[in-house]
Design goal:
Layout lengths: L1 E6 L3 H6 L2 H5 L6 E5 L11 H5 L3 E5 L9 E5 L5 E4 L4 H5 L3 E6 L2 E7 L7 H24 L2 E7 L23 H11 L3 E3 L1 H4 L15 H4 L7 E6 L6 E6 L11 E5 L2
Parallel strand pairs: 1-2, 7-8
Antiparallel strand pairs: 1-12, 2-4, 3-4, 5-6, 6-7, 8-10, 9-10, 11-12
Helix pairs in contact: 5-6
Amino acid sequence: MRIISYNVNGIRAAYKKGFIDWLKTDPADIICLQETKATKDDVDYKQLEALGFEHHWFSAQKKGYSGVSVFTKIKPDKVTLGNGHGASDDEGRVLQLDFGDIRLINAYFPSGTSGDERQQFKYKWLDEFYIYLNELKKKHPKIILCGDYNIAHKEIDIHDPKGNKNSSGFLPEERAWMDKFLGSGWIDTFRLFHAEPHRYSWWSQRFPTVRLNNKGWRIDYFTVTEALKKQVVAADIYHDVKHSDHCPIYIEVKA
């Protein structure tokens, strides 16, 4: 299974920037998207079907906001919309697919950058999701969780750790959540293969030179449960793919 996770920051905008042409290069069997900001009927999904993709969407109730989708050439055994938490499901943040004994979860974690209210929502969401995931592991030992986590875990994962110590996405409480999460039996797959610094998946759009100078954050992840660790054979970040302020991340798993 070759899987990509990609926050497209609006699927309609990505389409205009060559997203379909990129899909034609066959980058993966399964494409997990976050922040689609659209419903299925807002895009020409026939182009996806022509490339052999089955597509599943879970959009926010608010139009043009949030939302996740999965395009897959491997037929899933089951598709689950959301995770049963009302506020999260209203915002279209979680989409789950079963492939044999593997549960794939595509998640768009909340951002807290717009103010205290959303930061508190983020903390609540993180706490609820942590409990949900660890309960789910009892039924599905093999889980792949991908998406935009909106958290840079360690100093190596951000270009300016000192300057961003008070920034949402790198706050001590958020980083502590990542410590707790990864300490509870989840593996950061990228770090299984890459110990080097300066590997990022998101760059601010406020300053045009930020991406050019690679002043980014690694906030997009593939994490897997311990039961899947030995089946992970590759992981990478495709920083040269540019349809968004994020770039795609990649994992390959022996099913």
